[in-house]
Design a protein that fits this description.
Elements lengths: L2 E5 L2 E8 L2 E8 L2 H17 L11 H10 L6 H18 L17 H16 L6 H6 L15 H14 L1 H13 L3 H5 L6 E2 L4 E5 L5 E5 L2 H11 L20 H13 L6 H14 L4 H8 L4 H8 L4 H11 L5 E2 L2 E2 L10
Antiparallel strand pairs: 1-2, 2-3, 4-5, 5-6, 7-8
Helix pairs in contact: 2-3, 3-4, 6-7, 6-10, 7-9, 7-11
């Protein structure tokens, strides 16, 4: 049965299908969510379950799996079908028993993801799938090389471009680039979140808690201009059309298409820059996490913290004490004179 819940100003639908928990997020009204939930329940009621012990071919399994994805686009279903059929044909698999753990090693990440979905569907529907094949086909997380942090001039130019669209848009980017906030935490703020007397901003974090921290004078000036003459329950950051943002991903998409226009300066780059600068100033990671809203310090350091050649050079200089030099190279330890 599909259930409707409210989540951060929007509505979501949850239901169980083919042994998996599925979710649709970002529905603006409760009436739309309930209507869509009724359609999902009606579609699930019309499906005929598979009989126990029924064996199906790969082509039929792929068709049934794509039919069981009501929220997937036609393009996704087409890519999934082509990928699965290509992988199966290249390996010469004829039955489910051919997909042994050694046979699924070394697949490309996208091929492995599609094949894992098909294997999981077959395992849940009584097909002779080897359970270890699911674990073996899991693609490895390949870490991308770290991008260099953007220059301050590039960030200022992007924020100025966002200010042309609306002051609120530029302020969201300014907060992300200065304090490392999440876009999802900022787009739903009300005017009451800003305290002009104490000059503090209160915003929800990913864990659901509320964090409050002071802001710089430049940020306070921006927030005062946005909150001036507004009611406490009105949105603090309306978009350039005068309506609230539906979700943080909408702001991220607008930033990529209208501000940076394909340039490699995403919202995560702004957040990494803010976190790296706060850590470079010597702030302890616990304090930085209280500002950015991270639940754990390890996530803050492993995901967003970046180092630079300047910081590395400063660390090397700190290790090397001042002493006599030989051709401009400082010595780690003073040399002793050797008597003839």
């Amino acid at each position: 049965m599909a259930s409707v819940h409210k989540e951060r100003g929007a509505w979501r639908i949850r239901w169980r299908e083919d042994g998996r928990q599925r979710t649709i997020r970002g529905i603006p009204s409760k009436a739309q969510a309930e209507a869509q939930a009724r359609r999902i329940e009606a579609e699930l009621a019309t499906r005929t379950p598979m009989e126990p012990g029924e064996l199906v071919s790969f082509d039929e399994a792929i068709d049934r799996y794509c039919t069981a994805l009501p929220d997937a686009t036609d393009r996704h279903k087409e890519n999934f079908t082509k990928t699965c059929k290509r992988v199966i044909a290249n390996h010469g698999w004829r039955t489910w028993s051919d997909m042994t753990p050694p046979a699924v090693i070394g697949l490309l990440p996208f091929h492995a993801r599609c094949l894992r979905s098909l294997l999981r569907w077959g395992l849940e529907n009584g097909q002779p799938v080897h359970p270890r094949a699911l674990i073996t086909a899991k693609p490895k997380n390949r870490r991308k090389p770290q991008k260099p942090l953007p220059e301050q001039e590039e960030i200022d130019a992007a924020i100025a471009t966002a200010d042309v669209w609306h002051l609120a848009n530029g302020t969201i980017a300014h907060l992300i680039a200065t304090y490392g906030h999440r876009a999802q935490s900022l787009v739903g703020l009300k005017v009451e979140a800003w305290d002009p007397v104490r000059r503090t901003l209160t915003l929800p974090v990913k864990s659901g808690d509320l964090h409050r921290h002071p802001v710089l004078p430049a940020t306070a000036e921006r927030l005062n201009r946005l909150a001036s003459g507004e009611q406490l329950h009105t949105p603090l950051f309306p978009n350039h059309l005068g309506v609230p943002w539906r979700a943080g991903r909408d702001f991220v998409a607008w930033w990529a298409h209208c501000v940076t226009k394909g340039q490699r300066l995403g919202i995560l780059d702004l957040r990494r820059t803010a976190i790296s600068r706060m850590l470079a100033l010597g702030l302890d990671p616990k304090t930085v996490a209280s500002i950015t809203g991270h639940r754990t310090v390890s996530l803050l350091l492993n995901t967003y913290a970046r180092t630079t050649e300047t910081r590395q050079q400063a660390a090397i200089d700190a290790l090397c004490p001042r002493g006599p030099t030989v051709e401009g190279v400082p010595q780690m330890l003073p040399t002793k004179a050797v008597s003839p």
